[in-house]
Write a structure and sequence with these properties.
The chain is an alpha/beta fold. It has a single domain, classed as 3-Layer(aba) Sandwich (Rossmann fold), CATH 3.40.50. The chain is 44% helix and 13% strand. A hairpin with a 4-residue loop joins β1 and β2. The protein is globular and about 55 Å long.
Length: 360
């Protein structure tokens, strides 16, 4: 299934500073922020709760204030932690509020892939039911609770929906065989990924490898160092394939609908610090006004004094931040975490690649 587990497992499936100037919402801490004590938040009271922060002022904001500041954005990225319902609540509320301000809107999602586009359009035109939609697109298991509200809003208001991502089976096989795999795809399947699939933004690769090695540290099942290096390199190329394909999909949508405002949903790693998909889009179309909204996980009781204690690096995640509670740990025991990871690797290795043309 096209399910996306927490990010480390996504790397397993695909495998086995920064460009903040691209945003049109730069940070410039005002004198009043430096002179006045930081504002305070109430505790996060439930798992759907969130607090919004304006990076420019370092102060809390609310949904109407956020929407007003996004009035002139061409593309708005909302990073999420997959399955965190506070992220999904914000996305649904933001979609409706932005629509009220700018009805010419497009919804774009990482959670659907380019080869799903025709099925999504059939659903939006009421030619098929929801079960057919989820079956034929192999929708993520949390579709009904997380993305259904967004799709239904678009359907009700006749808004375009973009299946932005590269097909997972192509991404997985690039992670397995390297970038040359794309050269052997039939032409119609090659069109499912970006024409320039491996643009590599400055600062992204070390962040990616730091994340991978941090997650993999201490695992007794790790291969030899030389194998890990090759696997990590191909994992990174697979990650770039996703980022560049989503960026190209966003640019195509903007070219087709030049007056529309695009709301794009993706995992936070694709847009944090204006890297990933954001950097790939800015490289293709530097004139676009891009806004990034990024999540920050905190414990509920940390909200009250968070602004006074937050470091500058955290504020570089996006133009706006939203504080949310972490999800419950999937596994507490290291043995069970290892077993789950090994199962993901095994399942990834068993999945076939798309048929390839015979090399000439």
């Amino acid at each position: 299934m096209k399910t996306e587990q927490p990010f480390f497992f996504t790397l397993a499936l695909t495998a086995l500073a920064g460009l903040s100037g691209c945003s049109q919402f730069p940070s410039s801490q005002s004198d009043s922020v430096a002179q006045n004590p930081p504002a305070q938040f109430a505790p996060l009271t439930h798992l759907y709760d969130y607090h919004l922060i304006d990076r420019d002022t370092r102060e809390p904001t609310n949904l109407p204030g956020l929407v007003k500041k996004l009035a002139h954005a061409d593309v708005i990225f909302v990073g999420e932690y997959h399955g965190n319902q506070a992220s999904h609540l914000l996305q649904a509320q933001l979609q409706a509020a932005l629509f009220a301000q700018h009805p010419n809107q497009i919804l774009s999602l990482e959670q659907f892939e380019r080869d799903d586009q025709a099925v999504i359009e059939r659903y939006l035109e009421s030619q098929i039911g929801e079960k057919t939609l989820t079956d034929e697109t192999d929708a993520w298991p949390n579709y009904t609770g997380s993305y259904r509200p967004m799709i239904e809003f678009a359907k009700r208001h006749f808004l375009p929906v973009v299946a932005a991502n590269a097909p997972g089976r192509i991404v997985r096989c690039v992670g397995r065989h390297g970038p040359d795999y794309l050269n052997r795809l039939p032409p119609n399947q090659r069109d499912w990924v970006a024409q320039n699939p491996f643009y590599d933004p400055p600062g992204y690769q070390p962040r990616f490898f730091e994340f991978v090695t941090g997650q993999a540290h201490g695992e007794s099942t790790s291969p030899k160092k030389t194998d890990v290096t090759q696997r990590q390199r191909q994992s990174y190329q697979a990650q770039l394939l996703r980022d560049n394909t989503m960026a190209e999909s966003l640019l195509n949508a903007k070219r087709d609908h030049p007056d529309a405002q695009i709301l794009h949903l993706n995992g936070a790693f694709h847009s944090d610090e204006f890297l990933g998909t954001v950097a790939a889009l800015a490289q293709r179309a530097p004139q676009l006004r891009i806004a990034v909204i990024s999540p920050v996980r905190i414990e509920p009781e940390q909200a009250h004094g968070w602004l006074a204690q937050a470091d500058e690096q955290t504020f570089e995640k996006g133009d706006f931040l939203y504080l949310i509670q972490p999800q419950p740990a999937e596994y507490v025991q290291a043995q069970k975490r290892r077993a789950a990871m090994q199962k993901q690797f095994k399942q990834a290795e068993q999945k076939p690649c798309l048929p390839m043309r015979t090399a000439s």
